Amino acid sequence: MEFLHENLPFLCDYWPFILTGAVCLMAAIVLFKTALEPPVDESLPPEPDLLDELDELESMEDDSNPDVVPALPADIKHIPFQFSRFPIEDSQKRSQEFYDLMNKRRTVRFFSPDPVPKEIIYNIIRTAGTAPSGAHTEPWTYVVISDPDIKAKVREIVEQEEKINYDRRMGPQWVADLKPIKTDWVKEYLTTAPYLILVFKQVYGISENGERRTHYYNEMSVAIAAGILLTAIHNAGLVSLTSTPLNCGPGLRVLLGRPKNEKLTLLLPVGYPAEDATVPDLPRKPLEEIMVEI
Ligand SMILES: Cc1cc2nc3c(=O)[nH]c(=O)nc-3n(C[C@H](O)[C@H](O)[C@H](O)COP(=O)(O)O)c2cc1C
């Protein structure tokens, strides 16, 4: 101590002030660095890659915990699979015929108001309900609208948003890409077609006791189901227009009284084509361009 007093008298007399100053300086540096970092926007969804990983992790959850109760009954019966194998020639014929049928499917933007029996629509939706889904969560709701007043309200919401989309949100490239298809913000078909089918994905489910249930891969499950829905519409001899109205989801969800766990994914007018309906003459990529054989 003597030695320190003799050689570093300043340090000995003022060490409490020096220590306090050093601590304050360090705190100021930390605060300054934090202020420079961009804030984390909690309202933004996680990066898509991260979402995929989360989905994967959830689907690999450790179920060895005895408290974890499966969503399906744990003692679900496993039954013999009913299957009748076609002769190979039949399979070849069926695959060719089905391709020929599906190759005639087109997106139609001009509808006839001719009525369609409801039973056909029910069968179409039953067919979509046969789609596979992550852990058999069946994360979909199909809202079928035939009420003219509700169709008019849907059109009002969609056109209001689509006008802004075309004018401001989409940008010149997107608008230019849509020009050859001749689509714009006016959506007459929403009131002309006898039915509108709105496909909602259930982002999560709610169990009987009110707990949230994870809907694994709900996006992919609903996309597959939508493909089956479109196929069923075409197979029934009806036409449709696949549309994903930008920014209309929340307004339509509220209009239709759907719960918060449901998000609009597709809006499909369904019916017969107008007599003078036209479609753009679009080529489809040949097999060699869409398939890689290894
Ligand atoms: C996810 C998705 C969204 C689409 N959104 C619209 C749309 O908002 N408006 C529209 O007129 N067509 C829309 N289409 C239809 C496409 O333009 C159409 O499928 C494409 O031009 C090919 O024509 P095709 O279906 O007759 O083979 C959409 C298609 C898909 C798959």
Automatic annotation (TrEMBL):
TM regions (residue ranges): 14-32
Coiled coil residues, start to end: none
Sequence ranges assigned to domain Nitroreductase in this UniProt record: 104-272
CDD domains reported for this sequence: iodotyrosine_dehalogenase
GO MF term (any one): ribonucleotide binding
GO cellular component terms, A-Z: plasma membrane
GO biological process annotation, one example: tyrosine metabolic process
Keywords (A to Z) from UniProt: Flavoprotein, FMN, Membrane, Oxidoreductase, Transmembrane, Transmembrane helix
InterPro entries: Nitroreductase (IPR029479), Nitroreductase-like (IPR000415), Nitroreductase/BluB (IPR050627)
Cofactors: FMN
Entry-linked Pfam families: Nitroreductase (PF00881)
UniProt record similarity statement: Belongs to the nitroreductase family.
Name by which UniProt lists this protein: Nitroreductase domain-containing protein
Source organism: Nezara viridula
